[in-house]
Each structure stands twice: as C-alpha cells, then as structure tokens.
C-alpha cells in the first residue's frame, strides 16, 4: 500500500491568517483511496526550505502532495522548489501560457507578464490543466516517488485532485484496497477513562483504534483497510459493537453527529427556558431556547433557584440554569434542569487550559441535558 505526505505551502498559513483546509480534504481523500498518510507539513514561501522538505519526504514516502505556491508572484516558489528537489530546471510550456491567457480572456481580462511565470514547470513534469483557475498543477514521476503540486485555492485544488490526480494515483499504484473510518463520540468521561475501556483494542493492527480528546468530549476512531467497502464495514462493525458495549451511556453519536444535533430535536419538542452565567452568551447561541436570559452576577448556590424561577416565569415545560465560575486554577460548573416531574442537578470542575473552559462547559452542559432527558423519557415509558 503506497504511503503519502502532504506539504502545505504558504507563509499566510504559518502566520495563522488562513486555515489549512486543503490538508484535511486531502487526508480524507487519501484515506478513502487506500493510501496511508504518514505526515503533513506546513512551510512558508521559501524555495530552499520547500525543496529540503520535499527531498526529505522522498526518502520516506511514495507520494508527495504539495498545495499552494503556484501563483504568479515572486513569492510563489513551488515550481522552482520542486525542480530543485529533483535536480532539474524549470521549463517554459507554451501550451500552458495559451491556456492561462484563454482563461483570462473568458472573464474579459488580460493576463499580465507575471502570469507567464505560471507556464513554467519542472522539466519533464506532466502538466495538469486547470479549467477552474489560472494556476496549472503538475506531476513529477521519479519512478521511485511521485510529486504532485496543486494550487492552494481550495476549490481549484479539490477539482484537480478529483480529476485527473485521483484516477492517476489509482492507476499508477494499482490501488485495490480502501481505508474506511468510523468515529464514536463520547461525553461526560475523561480521556483516561475511555483509554482504560478500550486500551486492549488500541493494539489491534486492522482495524486500528485511536482516541482524540476535545474539551468535554472524547472520540474513538476505528479505521479499517480492506479490498472493498463491504469488507471494511464488516471489520468496523464488529469492533464498534464491542466499543459501544464498553462505553455505555457515555456514547452519544457517531461520525458527523454532534451534541447539539442530538439534543436540539428533543429540546425543541416543547417550550423551554435557559439562563446562563459565565458563558459569554455561547450556550444560548448553541441551544436556541424558546426563552433565555443571561446573568452577569450569577452564582453556583443560586443555580437551582434560577432554573425554578425561570420555568415559573415563562410557564415553560422545562428550564435549565447553567453557571460557570471561571476563577482560580479549577473552573466550576453548576447545572440544574427543572421539569414538571423532577429536578436534575450536577456539579463539575475543570482544570485544563483556561481558553478551552467555555467549550468544555458547553459540551458538559449539553451532555448533562442529554443524560437527564434520556432518564426522563425512560421513567415516562416505565
């Protein structure tokens, strides 16, 4: 099975001015095609460092994908860097210049001499025409490695990867297998607890099992390699069933499901009210209650009373009060959910990075709602 690396090029990425969405897209595409992605790198617009990174990648991987640095300015050095990495010069391709000029004329514009730079690619490279932009891509096949350079504009990059790059890779490496992933979402438990539940499965070779922790949430990713989607689905389903049995109530969804998508349909079945304190309005934005209020001077010992008063004032079916105290090393979250049948209360503490405190509290609050509402439904059915 071929291995791959992605090199995202652009000083703006290093400065945090834009997000690198290209790497995420390519990573998923490579996974689905059965290609193992071993490393991703972000490098600024420096020809020497880009060339060095490519040469290092050529010692490790079969496929090196670069994104960005194919524009018309002097700080778009990918063409020269790839040529330098493989020991050739860049060469002018008249047909690429014709395509670039045609693209500009289609929009009633005229290509400048700067754009002529985009008609240069490493000698011997196969050009990739770009019908949705002005920056052609190219493929350098060294027989031992394949270097594929794509534009940094996400729409252009995605278009060129789907056709012709992906078909080329499938033919070049005779790709028969696929990689499929399934993500289990848990909440209300820490990473160490989840690891204790599934640690023996994390040593499996295929499917593999790995953890990814977020503030207030832990994901379990199950990844399988096989010759067909049916085969990988069977492999994944057996492991997923075992994991779900182990994690129990901590499980709330899978893949694209979120805590919001799980609890909002339940909450929106009836008029309900929310009062928050310490969340900077985030909880109200996420949960979209029928009635809401934000307290600047809320306190933990007033949480239950605030929920009761809010429910009575609005005559709501249920009311939630959430207070986050962000002082000291440990932040404290107190919760109260009042319904016509009973009251649910909880208190949690957080000692992680302060900048993640609100996100942790929001996820913890939503998990509290999920568990409380499920208990309420279970009692009603019983």
Explain how this protein is built.
With 382 residues, this protein is an alpha/beta fold. It has three domains: 3-172, 3-Layer(aba) Sandwich (Molybdenum Cofactor Biosythetic Enzyme, Chain A); 178-257, Alpha-Beta Plaits, CATH 3.30.70; 260-381, CinA-like (Maf protein), CATH 3.90.950. The chain is built from twelve helices and 17 strands. It has helices spanning 11-14, 21-33, 47-58, 78-86, 94-106, 154-172, 191-198, 229-247, 259-267, 282-287, 303-314, 357-381, and strands spanning 3-9, 36-43, 63-67, 90-92, 120-122, 126-128, 137-141, 146-150, 178-187, 208-214, 217-226, 251-254, 272-277, 291-294, 318-325, 331-339, 343-350. A six-stranded mixed beta sheet has the order 2-1-3-8-7-6, with helices on both faces. A hairpin with a 2-residue loop joins strand 10 and strand 11. The longest helix has 25 residues, at 357-381. The chain is elongated, with a radius of gyration of 27 Å.
């Amino acid at each position: 099975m071929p291995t791959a690396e992605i090199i995202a090029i652009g000083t703006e990425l290093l400065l945090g001015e834009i997000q690198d969405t290209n790497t995420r897209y390519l990573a998923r595409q490579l996974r689905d095609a059965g290609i193992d992605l071993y490393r991703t790198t972000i490098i600024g617009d420096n020809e020497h460092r880009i060339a060095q990174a490519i040469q290092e990648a050529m010692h490790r991987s079969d496929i090196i994908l670069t994104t960005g640095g194919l524009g018309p300015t002097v700080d778009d050095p990918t063409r020269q860097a790839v040529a330098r990495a493989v020991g050739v010069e860049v060469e002018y391709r008249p047909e690429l210049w014709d395509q670039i000029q045609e693209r500009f004329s289609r929009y009633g514009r005229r290509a400048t001499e700067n754009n002529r730079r985009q008609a240069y690619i490493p000698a011997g490279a196969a050009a990739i025409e770009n019908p949705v932009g002005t920056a052609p891509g190219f493929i350098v096949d060294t027989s031992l490695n394949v270097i594929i350079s794509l534009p940094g504009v996400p729409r252009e990059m995605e278009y060129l990867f789907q056709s012709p790059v992906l078909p080329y890779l499938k033919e070049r490496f005779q790709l028969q297998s696929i990689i499929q992933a399934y993500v289990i979402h848990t909440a209300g438990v820490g990473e160490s607890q989840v690891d204790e539940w599934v640690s023996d499965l994390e040593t499996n070779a295929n499917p593999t099992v790995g953890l990814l922790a977020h503030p207030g949430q832990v994901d379990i990713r199950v990844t399988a390699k096989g010759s067909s989607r049916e085969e990988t689905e069977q492999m994944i389903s057996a492991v997923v069933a075992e994991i779900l049995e182990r994690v129990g109530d901590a499980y709330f969804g899978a893949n694209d499901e979120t805590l919001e998508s799980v609890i909002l349909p339940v909450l929106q079945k009836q008029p309900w009210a929310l009062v928050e304190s310490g969340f900077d309005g985030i909880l109200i934005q996420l949960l979209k209650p029928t009635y809401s209020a934000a307290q600047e001077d809320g306190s933990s010992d007033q949480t239950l009373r605030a929920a009761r008063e809010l429910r009575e004032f609005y005559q709501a079916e249920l009311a939630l009060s959430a207070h986050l105290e962000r002082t000291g090393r440990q932040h404290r979250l107190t919760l109260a959910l009042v319904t016509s049948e009973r009251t649910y209360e909880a208190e949690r503490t957080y000692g992680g990075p302060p900048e993640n405190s609100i996100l942790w509290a929001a996820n913890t609050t939503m998990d509290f709602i999920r568990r409380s509402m499920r208990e309420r439904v279970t009692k009603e059915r019983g």
